[in-house]
Recover the amino acids of this structure.
């Protein structure tokens, strides 16, 4: 495979797929709402009518507005793009007829709503456009040209420098500069190096990485290949949750297609670069999202964390230098190479460049995937894009960062979503889960929910996490059962500090965050739990 051959694949795909496309979301969210039957009914309607105009029915990835799935998008028509929500199989014929100007008996989605207009798509730029099961669809969007560019026109150190200058920070939670991590792996001389895509997304309410893998798997593979070339690796692993069968299926197919096309494997693009990708399926342990536990699991041992240093960039899989980035981080690599570091650095904020994908869930009128520039405020996301809380109720809090994050009160909704600002209000970016809560939610109960999750997911290796999370959960339960005292409230904060400062890995170190953030922002609810006095809507 060379560049002219790749572009011929792209041109052929464009010629064959020119015209009107009816895109049905076949990502997990819409599939659970029967979108496969919708897609099949659209194909049947086209076949029944003989489809003289060559309209194509395409199964695509996430169309983002999950709360109105199944979603169907029609592109290439007179109106360029129309989307329908809550589509049933019975409405398929009407949508097909609508291509020819007939009235459509389906609920049209307002594409001028801020949910769509305020998105800035980089990671999700292909989502809902490419067919994830067909590599030709990705190639037609310019896929794998960035990989060709770096292999034939850039030295490995130039690629590292480009990522460094972009300011890209790891999107897995900690926000560590990607360029520094890449440079650390690159500088080590070793016979074998590894690249790992951490797709062990386990936060309650989070589905960003799953959607990217289901919607645009080749984007992640291309990012991994570029990363491997830059740091001198030839072997990569995608560590993905076993609870993501569709992502695993599409990723497996994508790897097979990429090998067949010659963009993965030996002498990629007629270069000296060899690159192999294998999938490792996790068993559902939340702790394996932590780098050292993930490495242990890949090696075939029990997934428990190890003390650091050494860090994986120095001694990772089987003691070799290992680069670990999550799905969203790697999905940013292709556009950075394509558009340049300065372009990426000009989006977002100075310290947090680029965009961030959030999975908005909970009590919001519009839930689903959004991608916004770093520095956008929680108010813009929750009120403007997500449409606030149903039934006219008030937003009480927004929880970011999953079990490791914190609950941010409504009074702080003007907080920008960047790493430093979220930390200042007692939360974290995390991988991108965002749960909206209203004035009926008990923040003490929310703290207990996340503590129960951390307690159950603790690997048990270190005492502070193994025992401390149990004790924190017990004290929260006492408060909710009406048997707690103010001494328990004081002990909650003290024990949270101990667990945070003495646990071995990030799970234990961040497990107290929901407790500490609710103690900080909603102290009256803890007092009310002791006095058994009702608490009305707070922090409006």
């Amino acid at each position: 495979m060379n560049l002219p051959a790749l572009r011929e694949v792209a041109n052929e795909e464009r010629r064959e797929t020119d015209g009107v496309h009816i895109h049905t979301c076949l990502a997990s969210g819409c599939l659970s709402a029967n979108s496969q039957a919708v897609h099949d009914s659209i194909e049947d309607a086209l076949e029944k009518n003989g489809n003289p105009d060559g309209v194509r029915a395409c199964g695509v990835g996430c169309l983002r507005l999950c709360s109105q799935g199944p979603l169907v998008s029609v592109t290439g028509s007179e109106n360029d793009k129309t989307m329908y929500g809550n589509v049933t199989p019975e409405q398929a014929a009407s949508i097909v007829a609508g291509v020819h100007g007939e009235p459509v008996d389906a609920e049209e989605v307002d594409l001028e709503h801020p949910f769509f207009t305020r998105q800035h798509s980089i990671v999700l730029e292909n989502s809902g456009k490419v067919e994830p099961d067909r590599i030709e669809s990705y190639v037609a969007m310019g896929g794998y040209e960035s990989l060709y560019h770096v292999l034939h026109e850039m030295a490995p150190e130039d690629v590292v420098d480009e990522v460094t200058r972009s300011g890209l920070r790891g999107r897995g939670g900690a926000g560590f500069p990607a360029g520094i991590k890449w440079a650390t792996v690159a500088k080590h001389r070793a016979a074998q190096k590894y690249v790992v895509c951490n797709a062990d997304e386990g936060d309650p309410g989070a589905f960003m990485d799953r959607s990217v893998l289901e919607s645009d798997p080749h984007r992640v593979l291309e990012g991994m290949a570029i990363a491997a070339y830059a740091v001198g690796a030839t072997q990569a692993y995608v560590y993905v949750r076993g609870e993501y069968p569709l992502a695993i299926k599409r990723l497996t197919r994508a790897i097979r297609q990429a090998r067949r096309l010659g963009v993965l494997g030996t002498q990629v693009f007629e270069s000296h670069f060899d690159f192999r990708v294998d999938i490792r399926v996790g068993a559902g342990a939340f702790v394996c999202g932590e780098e050292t536990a993930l490495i242990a699991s890949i090696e075939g041992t029990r997934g428990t964390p190890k003390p650091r240093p050494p860090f994986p960039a120095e001694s990772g899989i089987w003691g070799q230098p290992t680069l670990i980035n999550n799905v969203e981080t790697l999905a940013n690599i292709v556009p950075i190479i394509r558009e340049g570091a300065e372009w990426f650095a000009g989006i977002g904020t100075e310290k947090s460049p680029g965009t961030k994908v959030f999975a908005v869930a909970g009590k919001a009128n519009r839930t689903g995937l959004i991608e916004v520039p770093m520095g956008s405020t929680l108010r813009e996301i929750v009120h403007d894009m997500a449409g606030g809380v149903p039934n006219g109720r008030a937003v009480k809090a927004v929880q970011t960062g999953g079990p490791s994050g914190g609950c941010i009160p409504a009074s702080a909704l003007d907080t920008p979503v960047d790493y430093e600002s979220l930390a200042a209000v007692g939360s974290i970016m995390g991988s991108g889960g965002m749960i909206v809560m209203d004035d009926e939610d008990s923040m003490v109960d929310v703290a207990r929910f996340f503590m129960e999750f951390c307690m159950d997911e603790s690997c048990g290796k270190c005492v502070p996490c193994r025992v401390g999370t149990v004790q924190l959960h017990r004290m929260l339960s006492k408060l909710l059962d009406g048997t707690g005292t103010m001494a328990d409230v004081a002990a909650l904060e003290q024990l949270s500090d101990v667990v945070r400062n003495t646990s071995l890995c990030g799970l234990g170190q961040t497990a107290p965050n929901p407790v500490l953030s609710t103690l900080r922002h909603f102290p009256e609810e803890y007092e009310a739990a002791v006095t058994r006095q009702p608490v009305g809507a707070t922090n409006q």
